[in-house]
């Protein structure tokens, strides 16, 4: 099996990108797939899904993180660390990622730097899936992430403001396809859903009106267990494997795998 690279992106903050990336990654590992996670966001949320704040900040302040690798255009393989669970590794982020746009600005073929840094890891095929968490922006760094990916998953929260800016996201994706012709939108996943509210149904109806974009049937409801797992720096299935959200993330993951096989 060739390594599949999937990024989780949305220019709106709070859409559940990091949580979805972390828990889909863990679900894939639980299914026996070998997974590498890459935290591309200065907020460090994906890193914090597996490590304590002290450990994450220790990496963030040193040279063992994604920022240092990208700034110096290093092969990413030496920056991989075990995530603490079977079949899953991670490249941690840094708060210095806030200045990555500046670092990239003067680089030759700056949109392709992450892709080049990831080349050796992909070619070795040590991983079935590489999942990348992206920041809530539409700049050069997110373009890097998209250009390095085969697929993009777009989490959208089921709230009145959840779809705000989604049109800009799709316009940006069209620009990226001028460089990365093979990039595919794997689908939109609805997160933070409250099925008791009318806006949950309206969100699905609005998304399906987009027509040519897959909307995953699986969705993620609001669940306090997710917050508790985050507080304990653990994926939800590791924290409480029999809770509702654990089942929802596993269902989403299986649906995601099925969509890739259809492509």
Can you characterise this structure?
With 263 residues, the chain is an alpha/beta fold. The chain has 13 helices and 7 strands. It has helices at residues 17-30, 45-48, 53-60, 66-71, 100-105, 113-117, 119-124, 140-147, 166-176, 198-208, 224-231, 236-239, 244-262; strands spanning 4-8, 35-39, 81-85, 88-91, 129-133, 151-157, 184-191. A 7-stranded mixed β-sheet has the order 3-4-2-5-1-6-7, with helices on both faces. A hairpin with a 2-residue loop joins β3 and β4. The longest helix is centred in the C-terminal third of the chain and has 19 residues, at 244-262. The two termini are 14 Å apart. The model has no long low-confidence stretch (mean pLDDT 92).
Sum up the structure in keywords.
single chain, globular, Rossmann fold, 263 residues, 42% helix, 7-stranded mixed β-sheet, alpha/beta
How are helices and strands ordered from N to C? EHEHHHEEHHHEHEHEHHHH
The CATH C-level class name: Alpha Beta
**Overall outline:** globular
Radius of gyration, rounded?
Answer: 17 Å
**At the fourth CATH level, what is the homologous superfamily?**
P-loop containing nucleotide triphosphate hydrolases
- Give the total of domains: 1
What is the CATH topology? Answer: Rossmann fold
- Helix-residue proportion: 40-55%
Overall strand count: 7
Return the structural class.
alpha/beta
Low-confidence stretches: none
Strand order of the largest sheet: 3-4-2-5-1-6-7
Hey, roughly how much beta strand do the residues contain?
Answer: 5-15%
CATH architecture: 3-Layer(aba) Sandwich
Number of helices: 13
Whole-number mean pLDDT: 92
Intertermini distance: 14 Å
